[in-house]
Write a structure and sequence with these properties.
The structure is a homodimer of 421-residue chains. Chain A is an alpha/beta fold and 421 residues long. Chain A has 16 helices and 16 strands. A seven-stranded parallel sheet of chain A has the order 10-9-11-8-7-12-13, sandwiched between helices. A four-stranded parallel sheet of chain A has the order 5-4-3-6, with helices on both faces. A three-stranded antiparallel sheet of chain A has the order 1-2-16, with no helix packed on it.
Chain lengths: 421, 421
């Protein structure tokens, strides 16, 4: 029986060796693997579903919520979608080896800033086996070795998927250690891996805030964090109210359980008397529970609006609940967002250029939108392709993290004998 | 008497408030401050020199090394140079608000990736008071508030400089808390500040490896690390040997005490018989102590070459000492660098295109040079302008860190009512 320490060290060392081979690998070889893996996932669907059925049965017996079981469950359609996701990643440009910036110095040195893989990524994520496929695809395409540690409820499914991904690596003549799986639910292994900054270049935790905090506390390597999204829509006094209503309804109702859903509505007092009655009625009709400041209730008589607490303004509901506040001016809206927001996504609805410029300049969030739904903050919508998460950090990567955000760079400098004077 | 915890919290909170005001400040206002500060440094030179004399006297009594005292000492010339440094920073383009990437989506959303300041930077550095001026200049120009914590030997000098920098902030009508100084040598304050990731966005430690490791261990915010530079020159079999000799001599001897000095020489066996006698003789004439593998000594009879240990190959000598190894081929050179190198700077001397491409692709260092001295890896030489340090990390910033590396970005998205389908 290997100890958690030895197991982790072996995994991390093998990942580092594999990463060195993968880094200079041609794009066509990485793309071949993506297509081989996609084909194999389709062909070996029965084997995947059989493993997944075991996970789902155990989760049902363990009384997991219906939502969690839904996230755990694979179907032929979901496997096909994940396989197509790999093919889409194959179609994206290679993020490695691009000259990001170039500079000829007065002494003739050609200085090129060239994108390179980060190296080894330790990815800790929810019990969602389709994420195993997406994450492996993104990491290999960006030239990184990945160590996967999925939620324990998905272990059998992940073992089946991992075997298929590794078989495709063999077929593509890539090192199998490019994609490794923590083949155990022992939490001690996670702790051990987080200490191995000598071999692991980045940890990406996904899931609840407590998991992310634990990883950030324990990790000796950099951590790409994705904390919560408490996203705001501010409806300015000059807003087109029909547009504003559509943006609020879409942000709140289109998919309330995700991080870029709208959680809080701020309304300029000058249009609150016109806007709040219609938007609160429309939201109520959609089944949204409203929690407002005292002024909100005053502007929308006849609509059920519960009093909002401080905690409501700070909350990420991930549900059909919306906090509402009437503000005296745009400065108060920006101040409210600075105080209660999570720096994820905020939107202003306005026809006033000064207001748009002020809001986009002064609101310090990963994405600041003008006249659009908060739901657009994701990698596909921003044109980055697939994403491994949405960073709420300001360091290295902010907002959606796609292939480019999984890369670092180095300076490659060509001279013809220059020495320093 | 304020406790270290209260003192740190007050400093950090005030920095955060000041950073919010500074972030959208116009470039011309920041540049005005840089010029006002430069003028004031010149005008108030006697006051600075008086404080510095106190520091130098105390350091002499405390038996600091001559090198350390030299780094601590300010002169009129050095103050003038630092003031000119601020004026040069004023002349650089504003790093904030640049559109780094732009993308029009099929639905009409205009997605712009825009550079923004990181926020609050906690800078921990050596007893070099001129660095106080450089660091404040770089941080303010990049829209960041800075908390300065210099070495304790320089405290009186830093207090004098800080007063001048803050007076210039008042004159430029910028918040004085944009530049704050830890006005105490209590180490507990450093520990407390490193816990305040709610207010501080980045810690940058400069100095010895043990300080950097301590900061990296204790910090709850990201840390930009600058570990050692064990820099290699590999002389390929096709190298122009006159060029190779000049590059080795320059890398080792031009300024041996800095991180981009050459510490190790790798020589292809096919040209070792021609190259080693001349380069070792030239190095010996320059007073360089040589520590070589057994083959090195064999190729250079009559030259004093001590046997190199494993520790010598891993060492950053920062002195007139060079380790030398004969390698069978370029792969062995790349492998040696992977094993012993620090990922800082490596150079290949070659006339062979395949060798140059292989070396630049497979060597994983912040800077990889072809036919040029390792001494060129710095911000000025690469065209970034002034730098706050050279990162040996791969995350966020790698290599020289100038104004752009002190920035993050956000997505600013303009629509006309888009909602997600």
């Amino acid at each position: 029986m290997t100890s958690p320490g030895d197991y982790s060290l072996d995994l991390a060392r093998r990942a580092k060796v594999a990463a060195r081979t993968l880094a200079p690998t041609l794009g066509q070889t990485k793309n071949r693997w993506l297509h081989l893996a996609a084909d194999a996932l389709i062909q070996r669907t029965p084997e995947i579903l059989s493993a997944n059925t075991g996970d789902v049965t155990a989760a049902t017996q363990a009384n997991l919520t219906a939502a969690n079981i839904d996230r755990l469950r694979l179907t032929s359609d979901r496997i096909r979608a994940a396989a197509n996701g790999l093919r889409e990643i194959a179609g994206l440009p290679d993020p490695v080896g691009r000259v990001l910036n170039s500079n000829v110095r007065p002494n003739g040195l050609h200085v090129n800033k060239v994108s390179v893989p980060l190296g080894v990524i330790f990815f800790i994520y929810e019990s969602r086996p389709n994420v195993t496929i997406d994450a492996a695809g993104l990491c290999v395409k960006s030239g990184n070795a990945i160590i996967l540690r999925g939620g324990r409820e998905a272990l059998a499914s992940n073992i089946a998927l991992h075997a298929i991904l590794q078989d495709a690596l063999r077929e593509a003549k890539l090192p199998v250690d490019v994609v490794q799986l923590v083949n155990s639910t022992d939490r001690e292994i996670v702790g051990q891996l987080l200490k191995l900054d000598r071999y692991i270049d980045l940890a990406i935790p996904r899931g609840g805030e407590s998991l992310i905090r634990r990883v950030a506390d324990e990790a000796t390597m950099p951590v790409l964090k994705h904390y919560m999204g408490n996203c705001h829509v501010y409806v300015d006094q000059s807003a087109d109210l029909t547009m504003a209503e559509a943006i609020v309804i879409n942000g709140k109702c289109q998919r309330p359980g995700v991080c870029n859903a709208t959680e809080s509505l701020l309304v300029h007092t000058d249009i609150a008397g016109k806007f709040l009655p219609r938007v609160t009625a429309a939201l109520t009709a959609k089944g949204v529970e409203l929690r407002g400041c005292p002024a909100t209730a005053g502007f929308a008589p006849g609509v059920t609006i519960k009093p909002a607490s401080e905690a409501d303004f700070a909350a990420e509901f991930l549900d059909l609940i919306l906090s509402i506040r009437v503000v005296q001016n745009i400065d108060e809206a920006i101040e409210h967002i600075a105080q209660y927001g999570s720096g994820h996504t905020e939107s202003i609805v306005t026809r006033n250029l000064d207001a748009a410029r002020k809001f986009t300049t002064e609101v310090d969030s990963a994405a600041v939108l003008v006249n659009a739904s908060t739901r657009f903050n994701d990698g596909f919508e921003f044109g980055l392709g697939a994403e491994i998460g949405i960073s709420t950090d300001k360091f290295h990567a902010r907002g959606p993290c796609g292939l480019q955000e999984l890369c670092s760079y180095k300076y490659v400098v060509y001279g013809d004998g220059q020495v320093k004077g």
